[in-house]
Design goal:
Length: 158
């Protein structure tokens, strides 16, 4: 049962012991993609969607950053970490999709990919929440880790 890092030798859930690890600079990036229907896209102007609640993208950025900071409270067995940096970029691509990229950085003993994934996910959910009055035909297509560095194994999606 030791293949899963969050299970002890008997198969019970356990927080990973990082006390012997060294502090390193760690960075992770995650991406979420939101597909918008035409009637929502029609509201897109000047690089954002404006609603009665305000700027959709600006609100999603704030929501994503707030969520990334609370990852240790949201994901069971995830270490509580303070972020050195969290940056969220939101762009439209040519396929009626919003691309959300969340990059997180910290000097710590453990990785920060869950914070990047949570930040991108909550930014996507914030966009859904702010646009659902216009259409429920919004799809959060995917959320995936794009890269991580600074730990035992680096990763980069090609």
């Amino acid at each position: 049962m030791t293949d899963f890092s969050h299970l002890d030798d008997t198969g019970k859930p356990a927080m990973v012991d990082i006390s012997a690890k060294k502090i390193t600079l760690r960075t992770a990036a995650a991406r979420s993609i939101v597909v918008l229907p035409e009637n929502v896209l029609e509201m897109f102007a000047n690089g954002d969607i404006q609603t009665k609640k305000g700027s959709v993208f600006q609100t999603a950025i704030i929501g994503g950053i707030m969520a990334a900071k609370k990852t240790g409270e949201l994901i069971p067995l995830c270490h509580p970490l303070g972020l050195d940096n969290c940056e969220i970029k939101i762009e439209m691509n040519g396929n009626n999709e919003i691309v959300i990229d969340c990059t997180t950085t910290i000097e710590a003993k453990t990785g920060i990919e869950m914070e990047a994934l949570v930040g991108a996910s909550i930014a996507a959910l914030t966009i859904y929440d702010m646009c659902k009055a216009i259409s429920h035909d919004i799809v959060i297509k995917e959320t995936k880790l794009m890269m991580k560095t600074g730990g035992k194994n680096d990763f980069e999606r090609k």
